[in-house]
Amino acid sequence: MYITRLELKNFRNYESLEADFDEKINLILGNNAQGKTNLIESIYMTSIGRSFRTAKDSDVIMFGKDEALIKVRAEKEYSDTEVEIRIKRPSKKSVKKDGIPLRKTSELLENIMIVIFSPEDMKIVKDEPEKRRKFIDRELCQISPKYYDSLSNYRKILAQRNSYLKEDNIDASLLDLWDSQLAKCGAGIITGRNDFIKSISVFSSKIHSGITAGAESLHIEYDPDVEVTENSGDQEMYFYDEIKKAYDSDMKMRSTTRGPHKDDISFFVNGINMRNFGSQGQQRTCALSLKLAELDLIKNETGQDAVLLLDDVMSELDATRQEYLIKTLKNNQLFVTTTDMDEKILKEFEGAKVFNICKGKFR
């Protein structure tokens, strides 16, 4: 699949923009703070309905304006599709797919498949667990509306439970209602993450071996806060029991201390934990392998070649990793942002459709 057209109105620093894209390589050039990442952000939002940079939708509306519009058209293998997102202050969002209003964001998923690779992703191995959980959730939400709903409901219930735990007088029967709902939604998250990590580890291992010419072997493990049960049907009851065991801790901390909101993942190269003992080069190779594995996983799960957004990462990779990246991505549409002075990267993407951005406008 590939994106053919983008329209923006009052999005970040874009008052008005219309652009038609090449089905293979699109090079977005510009100095810092001109709008390169904003453009990438707008495209990404049409895949999952939200930004990868902020949790507050209204943040994307241009200063002094009341409404922002994003409209994307994409060609798929047997059809085309159009996604339109309108965001109004203070917190109203409407989404249309092929002209039809959607009741909930999960109806947008499994439509336009997008993977983003940014400088922040380079640090995924060594950064805090929250970054790794966001990576898992971002990918799983795209390919599984069921997971998206479980995660969305879990977050709401978790926030309500944590708020209630801060009250002076706790009604055990009322708390139990949240416990039951938390266990039901959390079980779906745990099972989904476990299956996802198993799959992404296989794809990442093959890619990592290719990048290192077989010298290194990568294995990714899921580190769940609540143990994964052998029978997924038992996961809800097991999680519920763990919540009950943590009652005293929760009361003391006035917060929910057990659950997938505490999950993590670990990266092992030749049996060595990369978070604690990996070099910067090894950690970056792990990150690159992981992001490329997302493309393979999406292809395997959906049959579609996802669009890849490379937001200012080429300069972060050495020549070997750049070469592997370019050689590998023959079937995917690319959006590559970089500065207009990086002659080496310009040469690597010879033949690309080039867009020069200055202050939210194409030159």
Question: Strand order, biggest sheet?
Answer: 2-1-4-5-6-7
Structural class of the helices, strands and pairings?
Answer: alpha/beta
Provide the succession of SSEs: EEEHEEEEEHHHEHHEEHHEHEHEE
Rg measurement, Å: 22 Å
Number of strands: 15
Question: What is the quaternary state of this protein?
Answer: single chain
Residues in helix, %: 40-55%
Question: Any low-confidence stretches, pLDDT <50, length ≥5?
Answer: none
Biggest β-sheet strands, sense, barrel: 6 strands, antiparallel
Rounded mean pLDDT score: 93
Approximately how much beta-strand content do the residues carry? 15-25%
Shape: globular
* C-alpha termini separation: 27 Å
Total helical elements: 10
Tags for this model:
363 residues, six-stranded antiparallel beta sheet, single chain, six-stranded mixed beta sheet, alpha/beta
Describe the structure.
The chain has helices at residues 36-48, 129-143, 145-165, 172-211, 235-245, 247-253, 274-277, 280-302, 319-328, 343-348, and strands at residues 2-11, 14-20, 25-29, 67-75, 80-88, 92-97, 100-101, 114-117, 218-223, 264-269, 272-273, 307-311, 334-338, 353-358, 361-362. The model has no long low-confidence stretch (mean pLDDT 93). It is globular, with a radius of gyration of 22 Å. It is of the alpha/beta class and 363 residues long. The longest helix has 40 residues, at 172-211.
Topology:
Blueprint: E1 2-11, E2 14-20, E3 25-29, H1 36-48, E4 67-75, E5 80-88, E6 92-97, E7 100-101, E8 114-117, H2 129-143, H3 145-165, H4 172-211, E9 218-223, H5 235-245, H6 247-253, E10 264-269, E11 272-273, H7 274-277, H8 280-302, E12 307-311, H9 319-328, E13 334-338, H10 343-348, E14 353-358, E15 361-362
Parallel strand pairs: 3-13, 3-14, 8-12, 12-13
Antiparallel strand pairs: 1-2, 1-4, 4-5, 5-6, 6-7, 9-10, 10-11, 14-15
Helix pairs in contact: 2-3, 3-4, 4-5, 4-8
